[in-house]
Amino acid sequence: MFESGEAEGKNSVSWIEFGGDGICVGIGENQSRGYRIALKCGEGDDEECIAGTANKTSDGESVKIKWDDGGGTDTLDWIGDDNV
Fold first, then answer.
1. At residue 45, what are phi and psi to the nearest 5 degrees?
2. d(Cα 24, Cα 78) in Å, to the nearest integer?
3. Residue 37 CB: number of other CB atoms within 10 A?
């Protein structure tokens, strides 16, 4: 978690898009509607910013990310702390 600056209180987030933009980096923050993430992918003319909201599924086994701007969804296995 960042302790100072513009990102104070937020977490570092990364996303690897195999066969696409590669490694995307950004910040994440727990909000009332879910865990919001904002990422920068690519560089220069290929740079793209994406954002979405992540929530654990009802069975607690996965995390579903709903991407903004019609980007669809991705579901990932949950491997974190069960108390989150």
1. -65, -20
2. 19
3. 23
CA-CA-CA-CA dihedral for 43, 78, 52, 3, to nearest 10: -70
CA distance 74 to 54: 9
Q: Are residues 29 and 36 in contact, defined by beta-carbon separation less than 8 angstroms? A: yes
Question: What tokens were used for 35?
Answer: 């865990």
Query: How many CA atoms, within 13 angstroms, populate the side-chain half-sphere of residue 46?
Result: 8
- What is the mean pLDDT, run by run of 10 residues, along the chain of 84 residues? 77 82 88 92 87 92 92 87 59
On whether the CB atoms of residues 57 and 75 are closer than 8 A, the answer is: yes
φ and ψ at 64, to 5 degrees? Answer: -110, 125
Q: Which of 30, 48, 24, 27 is nearest to 38 (CA)?
A: 27
pTM: 0.77
Are 77 and 61 within 8 A, CB to CB? yes
